[in-house]
Design brief:
Its EC number is 2.7.1.23. Belongs to the NAD kinase family. InterPro entries: ATP-NAD_kinase_N, ATP-NAD_kinase_PpnK-typ_C, NAD/diacylglycerol_kinase_sf, NADK. It catalyses: NAD(+) + ATP = ADP + NADP(+) + H(+). The chain has 266 residues and is α+β, with helices and mostly antiparallel strands. The protein has a six-stranded antiparallel sheet, with no helix packed on it. Strands 12-11-10-7-14-15 form a six-stranded antiparallel sheet, with no helix packed on it. β5 and β6 form a beta hairpin.
């Protein structure tokens, strides 16, 4: 690595850093500023990746690094930035050294389509089912092979991780789960019947199976973060404990504190 400065400590103690940015002008300008201050390397050689953008770009970066076990430090150059740290070009090396690590386990979706197709995908936020037509979906829900809801008539239903509980799950009036809670959120989307059902909290090891009823008349799609599967007839969801993703947060802006604060926003 070069002897570029911009933070305390010798260059020999600095990790190999790769800078990646979203396609927005703000993110690209931030990357240029950081490249002018700090030595960088290719993503494949990095010991830490600095991601510049919003939460959507962070999700993309995490998906692209599944299986590499490289920590990712995000800085917000997007809109929401719930998974990101504040952007500041100074002091990056010290911030990386002091950052706290959070390990996330994604959900694994296995979807079977009415044509007999079989698709798998990982989700860091949620796996969600949605109606494809003007008619409401009818979905049977099994938890660990036990039928818990014979028929949910709805626009959709989702399973969210603690990290994803403040995303679409929260918009669907699901509960916020503090990071580290061994739970998943099962949340209906515009439930028509049973009208009063607001969802459930499940143990993190639960296997959730959605069976699409009347799938020809009432088609349903399934989405795991960025992966969509159309015309599904059955979808299983469970946490993938063998896959671990690493995020770095400034001590004063760790993810647990953000999730806690989110619960007190009026």
């Amino acid at each position: 690595m070069s002897d570029k400065t911009g933070a305390s400590g010798t260059a020999s103690l600095r990790p190999k850093i790769a800078f990646v940015a979203a396609s927005t002008p703000e993110a690209n300008q931030a990357r240029d500023d950081l490249l002018a201050r700090y030595a960088s390397c290719d993503v494949d050689e990095a010991e830490v990746i600095v991601a510049l953008g919003g939460d959507g770009f962070m999700l993309e970066t995490l998906h692209q690094t599944v299986g590499r076990s490289v920590p990712i430090y995000g800085m917000n150059r997007g809109t929401v930035g719930f998974l990101m740290n504040e952007f500041e070009s100074d002091g990056l090396i010290d911030r990386l050294a002091q950052a706290q690590e959070v390990r996330l386990h994604p959900l694994r979706m296995v979807a079977r389509t009415r044509e007999g197709g079989h698709s798998e995908a990982l989700a860091l936020n949620e796996v969600a089912l949605f109606r494809e037509s003007r008619q409401a979906a009818k979905i049977r829900i099994r938890i660990d092979s036990v039928i818990r809801l014979e028929e949910l008539v709805c626009d959709g239903v989702l399973v969210a991780t603690p990290a994803g509980s403040t995303a679409y799950n929260l918009s669907a009036h699901g509960p916020i789960l503090p990071l580290g809670t061994p739970l998943l959120a099962l949340t209906p989307i515009s439930a028509f019947r049973p009208r009063r059902w607001r969802g459930a909290l499940l143990p993190q090891g639960a296997k959730v199976t959605f069976e699409v009823l009347e799938h020809l008349k009432r088609p349903v799609s399934a989405t795991a973060d960025f992966t969509e599967v159309r015309d599904v007839v059955e979808v299983t969801v469970r946490e993938d404990r063998e896959t671990s993703l690493r995020l770095l947060f400034d001590p004063e802006h760790n993810l647990e504190e953000r999730i806690l604060k989110e619960q007190f926003i009026p």
